[in-house]
UniProtKB/TrEMBL annotation:
UniProt keyword annotations, A-Z: ATP-binding, Nucleotide-binding, Transport
Bilayer-crossing regions: none
PROSITE patterns (UniProt xref): ABC_TRANSPORTER_1 (PS00211), ABC_TRANSPORTER_2 (PS50893)
Keyword ATP-binding: yes
GO MF, one example: ATP binding
Taxonomic path: Bacteria, Bacillati, Actinomycetota, Actinomycetes, Micromonosporales
Domain ABC transporter, first and last residues per copy: 2-226
Family: Belongs to the ABC transporter superfamily.
Domain of life: Bacteria
Pfam families cross-referenced by the UniProt entry: ABC_tran
Protein name: ABC transporter ATP-binding protein
Amino acid sequence: MITAARLGKRYGDKVAVDDLSFEVRPGTVTGFLGPNGAGKSTTMRLMLDLDRGTGETRFDGRRFETIRHPMREIGAVLEAKAFHPTRTARNHLRMLAAGSGIPATRVDEVLEFVGIAEVARRKPKGFSLGMAQRLGLAQALLGDPATLILDEPANGLDPHGIHWLRDVLRALAAEGRTIFVSSHLLSEMSLMADELVVVGRGRMIYNGGVDGFVRSFTQSTVLVRTPSVSMLVDALRAVPGISVSAEGADGVRVSGASSATVGDVAFAAGVRVHELSTTTASLETAFMTATGAAEEYVAQAPAGGGE
Ligand SMILES: Nc1ncnc2c1ncn2[C@@H]1O[C@H](COP(=O)(O)OP(=O)(O)OP(=O)(O)O)[C@@H](O)[C@H]1O
């Protein structure tokens, strides 16, 4: 369990992280989302005592600085390409293993596990971003830690790599580990994460389950197909709070009511229904709504768009 309490960080006048508190529970993948510049990397650095700020983070009740062999308890990758410039990938890991009392045999095990055993005798300098990400994950897993903190681990991975990462993180969580992972890939996050911490301009926007996030920041709608569109529209318009719009020749899109309510209204009005389905918005839509006002860097619309 990670407990982050009142984390804060300023750069001059700029508040990068503003009083953030959250918990990351074992057995779950917790996604850390936020627009560019929202304070995700700074928060992760604060959690690992790599930056000075306010507040404190505890890992199973203990502060990072009091943990004797951090690699054996907390695996972290904050920068994809932070490796020794002249050592081979394998030697880089062997050196880290030796420093933390981890047997050298574990190095080949993790290199195999992340799928880069073939290039282990090359220098990471020449690695693609995807290969570097895999080496980073190998490094994080070296000490078989119960906690993983990963900043944008999917960045640079191809679709197969992303799929693989998702399976790996879910499997590691299923073993009871605590996994905190930031990402910009929202569709991936919706498949990978159970819980979310969403920040904007350093502040907490949402902390809770993925489904709850989508429900809180989007509105699901109900689609009805019926041969009696006008009868149904009249019946629905009589109900306060419901709004309707046409969807093709035989469809009605309904906002502000559950499918059960819509079905009951149709039944009471004697309207035959051929389809009744709920459309839930995506995590991406929820993210855009939740963080729209908290975006740090907003691109200008291209000039001469010819609207
Ligand atoms: N060393 C620094 N000096 C000054 N400002 C900084 C420094 N590092 C970060 N910041 C500022 O703090 C804020 C948070 O940055 P941070 O890198 O933590 O955001 P992020 O959510 O990780 O962004 P991204 O998704 O783009 O990686 C930003 O406004 C950034 O410009």
